Structure formats: C-alpha cells, structure tokens
Amino acid sequence: MSPFHVWVLLSGVETMALRMQVQFENADKIAAWLRGQPQELNVYHAGFEDHPQAELVRKQQPAGGIVVPFEVV
C-alpha cells in the first residue's frame, strides 16, 4: 500500500466515531419526522422504544442505527 493510501485510510479512521454519531442522530431525526407525517406510514427504526427488539438494541449498540426502514400503508 502506498503512503498516500495509508494516509487516506488513517485520516478516515480518525473521524469515524464522529461521523457515525452524526449518522445515528440524523437517522433518529428522520425516523421521528417520518412518524409525524400525516400519511399512513409504518416506521421500524430500532431506536424507537416500541421497537420489538428495543431492549436488545440498547444492549448491543449506542444508538438505534443508521437505517430507517418504513413502509407506506
């Protein structure tokens, strides 16, 4: 691996925790926004307290995740 590629890799690793935290926060905001819409939507975000596996999620990860699955009913 070239020195440049190592530098790019290391610079990405240094900021990974911050980038992941921002992604968690944005996913939470989007999920809450989707839930507040007047359309009939089912939002299955793992960060919600009423998620079927909310307890397991809290044990395994610091936030609800960055994926916000939903369906239009």
From TrEMBL:
Keywords: Pyridoxal phosphate. Its cofactor is pyridoxal 5'-phosphate. It comes from the Bacteria. One of its GO terms (biological process) is transsulfuration. One of its GO terms (molecular function) is carbon-sulfur lyase activity. InterPro entries: Cys/Met-Metab_PyrdxlP-dep_enz, PyrdxlP-dep_Trfase, PyrdxlP-dep_Trfase_small. The keyword Repeat does not apply. GO terms for cellular component: cytoplasm. Belongs to the trans-sulfuration enzymes family. This is Uncharacterized protein. It comes from Neisseria arctica.
